Task: inverse folding
């Protein structure tokens, strides 16, 4: 059995004001092409399908079309869970229609998938709260998945049945997982756990979350689940939330964050993105390979001290998104800023940095109060921040001035 593991699609996500929807469409097409080329038998998506609880119509349309394409008209199961960016109810909203395509979506840790059987031979043969067993066409053994979507504190209390989840989360998750594994995960099938949470070695360091990522809920520090809590029957743990692909070391079975398919923050600049392809069969260790993803714009953090060098590099790297720092001995002029911004369409942020700002303080001692208030504010902002105020700040100033006049 071949299985494709992916996660953290974040459909609808923007980088600053730049839409990534076309890049997302391209990379999901690439994932579909990889699934077909590698002839995978199942696809698992470990959470954060959307970037917002209320995604755009375009993001919803892209998700449904991509899942349907991956499912190959009900011949290949696709199983997805909710992440911390997702609304569980929205993830489960299309379930009645999705299962007709062989798609299984669960939003809550105690969601109970509804059994189905398709003409293709694909079926759910057993299901429970947080568990599904699938019979896949052409495969003579089942795929079992223990499913743990992300849960906030309210859902945790409901799921755990306790008012003190911070003291019992690890214990209850371990017991829940092991009960399901003992009941359903015998050696005659492939047994996988899929979750959207922090999972680390007990003695290991907490993995770093990407910039601008919503942090996993801190519940008394107990949000970090340990590898020792995993049931011994599990052959592979498919994780979502961390955007950098990584394999947790020193574990009884592979414990893998597949990472996001695109670089979504500047902290991910330079990262290579992958999907993981698993080779699995009962009673044997699961092997895996990483297949690189090439779609999407590259993210760069660049620093220059010459306008000419800056413009030259920008013109040589047009199809990118850039966080640009410009270092100089003087404040950047409006003309210099204009030259840089006009040289490239993908500048996310332009950060002027003064080498020795203290030496420029004397320039602000003489203030001509007869000048326009907007000019005075611009001078002050430039002095305090080392850069020009952007349009949003200037528009806010205009609103304040307008209210004062009223």
Result:
């Amino acid at each position: 059995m071949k299985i494709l593991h992916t996660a953290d699609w974040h459909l609808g996500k923007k980088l600053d004001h730049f839409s990534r929807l076309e890049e997302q469409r391209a990379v999901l097409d690439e994932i579909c092409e990889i699934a077909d080329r590698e002839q995978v038998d199942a696809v698992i998506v470990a959470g954060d399908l959307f970037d917002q609880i209320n995604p755009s119509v375009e993001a919803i349309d892209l998700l449904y079309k991509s899942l349907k394409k991956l499912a190959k008209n009900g011949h290949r199961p696709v199983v997805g869970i909710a992440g911390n960016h997702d609304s569980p109810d929205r993830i489960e909203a299309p379930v009645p229609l999705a299962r007709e395509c062989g798609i299984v979506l669960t939003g809550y840790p105690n969601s109970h998938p509804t059994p189905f059987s398709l003409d293709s031979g694909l079926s759910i043969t057993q299901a429970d709260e947080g568990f599904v067993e699938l019979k896949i066409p052409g495969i003579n053994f089942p795929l079992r998945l223990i499913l743990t979507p992300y849960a906030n504190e309210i859902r945790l209390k409901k799921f755990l049945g306790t008012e003190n989840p911070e003291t019992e989360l690890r214990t209850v998750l371990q017991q829940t997982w092991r009960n399901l594994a003992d009941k359903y995960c015998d050696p005659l099938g492939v047994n996988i756990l899929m979750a959207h949470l922090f999972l680390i070695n007990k003695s290991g360091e907490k993995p770093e979350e990407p910039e601008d990522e919503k942090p996993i809920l801190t519940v008394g520090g107990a949000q970090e689940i340990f590898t020792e809590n995993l049931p011994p029957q599990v052959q592979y743990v498919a994780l979502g939330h961390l955007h950098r692909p990584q394999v947790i070391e020193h574990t009884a079975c592979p414990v893998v964050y597949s990472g996001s398919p695109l670089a979504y923050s500047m902290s991910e600049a330079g990262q290579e993105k992958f999907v993981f392809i698993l080779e699995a069969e009962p009673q044997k260790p699961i092997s895996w390979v990483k297949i690189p993803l090439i779609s999407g714009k590259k993210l760069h953090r660049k620093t220059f001290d010459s306008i000419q060098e800056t413009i030259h590099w920008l013109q040589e790297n047009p199809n990118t998104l850039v966080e640009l720092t410009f270092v100089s001995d003087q404040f950047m002029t409006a003309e210099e800023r204009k030259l840089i911004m006009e040289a490239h369409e993908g500048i996310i942020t332009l950060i002027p940095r003064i080498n020795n700002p203290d030496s420029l303080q004397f320039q602000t001692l003489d203030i001509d109060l007869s000048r326009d208030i907007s000019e005075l504010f611009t001078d002050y902002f430039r002095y305090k921040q080392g850069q020009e105020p952007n349009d949003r700040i200037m528009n806010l100033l205009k609103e304040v001035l307008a209210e004062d006049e009223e």
Observations:
- The CA atoms of residues 225 and 406 lie 57 Å apart.
- The longest strand covers residues 320-328.
